[in-house]
Design a protein that fits this description.
It contains nine helices and eleven strands. It is an alpha/beta fold. It folds into two domains: 161 residues, 3-Layer(aba) Sandwich (Molybdenum Cofactor Biosythetic Enzyme, Chain A), CATH 3.40.980.10; 65 residues, Alpha-Beta Plaits. The protein starts with a strand and ends in a 7-residue tail after the last helix.
């Protein structure tokens, strides 16, 4: 199973002013393609921080998906950060710049939009179906826009590259507390290493409830773990 990190770049994300919906959407979409997301992170619009993250994390996973920081304002530094991570210079891709100039010149923004075509040397550009700034791919790093609608549309243009066995999910809620079933969860983890075992408690007016979640790209392993957990938790009311 392929493994991935998701990095969101933006001061507004780190400060909490904007919800990191891109990371949540990507994680769900990647799971459906069979990609196991190992880490979600958010960092400032800072070249050195972006480069340091990618130098550390890109070698550890199959893919890193980066969103945000591709516009033309002074705090849009993702292109430069990715270039620095791989020891490359940014350079204009003439054919991309020409498309952007032609598209935005009627609004008097041709030269401004052409800045978006300045990508790390050797990058594969990804045209933006809904907006202006292109994304790009450098080695195992896929860089997408920050605006959610643009990010989602651009991702779909390359989604098939990452298709594998989808990660399937089983979940059930039990009217009990985590402490009462922790031994069962630990045993499930030990007996079924191919399956991710999670538990998510909440407290209702009439008592505690725990949602148990099992995930795996191996359908047989998931079925076996599901049967074991259902049997082990048979004495606890479920819904």
């Amino acid at each position: 199973m392929a493994r991935a990190d998701i990095l969101t770049v933006g001061n507004e994300i780190v400060s909490g002013d904007t919800e990191n919906t891109n990371a949540s959407w990507l994680a769900r979409r990647l799971a459906g393609l069979g990609v196991d997301v190992r880490l979600i992170a958010a960092i400032h619009d800072d070249i050195d921080e972006i480069a340091a993250f990618l130098r550390a994390e890109a070698p550890r996973v199959d893919h890193v998906f980066v969103t945000g920081g591709l516009g033309g304002t002074p705090d849009d530094l993702t292109r430069e950060g990715v270039a620095a991570a791989f020891g490359r210079e940014c350079e204009e891709i003439a054919e991309v710049a020409a498309v952007l100039r032609a598209r935005f010149e009627p609004r008097g923004l041709g030269d401004y939009a052409a800045r978006w075509a300045c990508l790390p040397h050797g990058a594969e550009p990804l045209l933006n179906p809904l907006g202006g700034a292109p994304g790009f791919v450098v080695e195992n790093v896929v860089v997408l826009p920050g605006l959610p609608s643009e990010m989602e549309a651009m991702f779909e243009t390359v989604a098939e590259r990452f298709a594998g066995r989808p990660i399937e999910t089983w979940r059930r809620s039990y009217r009990t507390g985590e402490g009462q079933i922790v031994a069962i969860l630990e045993e499930a983890t030990r007996l079924h290493p191919e399956v991710m075992v999670g538990s998510y408690p909440r407290f209702l007016d009439d008592g505690p409830e725990v949602t148990v979640v099992l995930k795996s790209a191996d359908g047989d392993a998931l079925a076996a773990a599901t049967a074991w957990v259902e049997s082990a938790l048979a004495d606890h009311p479920a819904r």
